[in-house]
Amino acid sequence: MAIHEFDLVITGAGPAGMTAALYGARALLSTVVLERGEPGGELLNTEYLENFISYPKVLGRDLAAKFAEHARQAGAEIREFINVEYVAKREDGFFETVCDNGDIYVSPSVIVTAGGTPVKLGIPGELEYAGRGVSYCAVCDANFFKQQHIAVVGGGDAAVEESGYLSNYGSKVTLIHRRNEFRASRILQQRLFENPKINVILDTVAEEVLGENGLMTGLRLRNVETGETSVLDATGLFVFVGFKPNTGIIRGHLEHDKMGYVITDSMTMMVPSVPGMFVAGDMRAQLTRQVTTAAGDGTTAAIAAEKYVKGFMEAKREQRSAQTSEFRAIAESHADTTGLAR
Ligand SMILES: Cc1cc2nc3c(=O)[nH]c(=O)nc-3n(C[C@H](O)[C@H](O)[C@H](O)COP(=O)(O)OP(=O)(O)OC[C@H]3O[C@@H](n4cnc5c(N)ncnc54)[C@H](O)[C@@H]3O)c2cc1C
Questions:
Q1: pLDDT digit string (tens) for 230-274?
Q2: What is residue 41's three-state secondary structure?
Q3: Are 268 and 4 in contact (CB under 8 A)?
Q4: Domain residue spans in the chain?
Q5: Best residue for ligand 1 mutational test, from 46, 86, 132, 297 (most atoms within 8 Å of Cβ)
Q6: 134-239: same fold as 3-117+243-321?
Q7: What is the maximal distance between C-alpha atoms in the chain?
Q8: How far apart are CA 191 and CA 42, in angstroms?
Q9: Tens digits of per-residue pLDDT, 61-86?
Q10: How many C-beta atoms surround the C-beta of residue 126 within 10 A?
Q11: 115 CA to centre of ligand 1 in angstroms
């Protein structure tokens, strides 16, 4: 076990964490990013991005490497394959970021950018064809399915709303839901049923993603009432059965929305109930989750953290100098009463 001291400790080297690291290091804070895998976050699960400004088409992996290189060039440390167990604030105001190898990182401020995970269907072929037909993000990937038959799985607001969005791209959208009615709001359902490009299949689950030569070619379905199976000739599958923000590593009271996303102060990204702790990127409650918004959040959080650290260290210095003066006064009065020479 080792204790490491930094001005700023960031959990997660996705786009939010690496941007925060760049800004933290450039603000001359000693900055470390702890990453349980390789740097990149969801970029490593994205084949091509077509909406990162200045790159009309870029491989997620290449963009991740550039983010990491830039943050390191600025002076930030990125420590890979370190899993953070929890982040907690101590009584003296410092934070402890505790890793499962026993190491503890102590810092006056932390930024948590641990992202989240789209809930998977867990069916054969799903992971094999992820990025090759299977996606969890319509804004990101719709463009790759122009004039194709797109399947969507889910029954909540995200599935219903994104089906409408995907119908602007695909030749046809088939929405598959395991129950016989949707959880989505009425207005979204009304739009769904009015959309001539969307076909709805109820009481049905997706059982297997089929493919050939590394690309998805269809989806095997099973009707849960009759047990009957069929194959849908879709070449794209968008899964919207939930997204789980990785908030479990934060110790302390957090406000969150009904989906579990952390509510932060909108000016600074600070967690209102834990001064000095900032949350940025996909973990945060906000309208959308993209690489650009994650990078924007990371920027704001690091600039706010810099101000926080300055204020915190100044307060500590004043506290120490007040304690020293008090100690001196006690020592002097003791010397006076005992007649000792100063
Ligand atoms: C399939 C897919 C395709 C996408 N395509 C696009 C696109 O084309 N364009 C676009 O703009 N956006 C796209 N997105 C969204 C974009 O990738 C995310 O919005 C962005 O990556 C969020 O960045 P983040 O840093 O908040 O989180 P993440 O990218 O999720 O990074 C979080 C990091 O934290 C690490 N971590 C988590 N827990 C711990 C722990 N306990 N200890 C240490 N490390 C930890 C993770 O390993 C990860 O590296 C896509 C998302 C998906 C899922």
A1: 999 999 999 999 889 999 999 988 999 988 999 999 999 999 999
A2: helix
A3: no
A4: 3-117+243-321, 134-239
A5: 46
A6: yes
A7: 100
A8: 31
A9: 999 999 999 999 999 999 999 999 99
A10: 18
A11: 5
Amino acid occupying residue 78:
I
- Identify which of 291, 293, 299 to mutate to test ligand 1's pocket (most ligand atoms within 8 A of the CB): 291
Helix (H, G, I), strand (E, B) or coil at 125: coil
Q: Nearest CA to 290 among 141, 87, 129?
A: 141
Q: Could you please report the per-residue DSSP string of 275-309?
A: TTEEE-GGGB--S---HHHHHHHHHHHHHHHHHHH
CATH placement of domain 134-239: 3.50.50.60
| H or E segment and range at residue 56 | none
* pTM: predicted TM-score of the whole model, two decimal places: 0.83
The residue whose CA has the least distance to atom 5 of ligand 1 is: 140
Residue keyed to tokens 């990013």? 33
Q: For ligand 1, is residue 110 a contact (CB within 6 Å)?
A: no
CA distance 167 to 148: 10
Tell me the fold of 3-117+243-321: FAD/NAD(P)-binding domain (3.50.50)
Return the active site residues.
137, 140-141
Could you tell me the distance, in angstroms and rounded to a whole number, from the CA of residue 15 to the centre of ligand 1?
7
Contacts of 91 (CB under 8 A, 6+ apart): none
Task: Give the number of the atom of ligand 1 that is nearest the alpha carbon of residue 18.
Answer: 25
> ∠ CA 221-222-226 to the nearest 5 degrees?
150
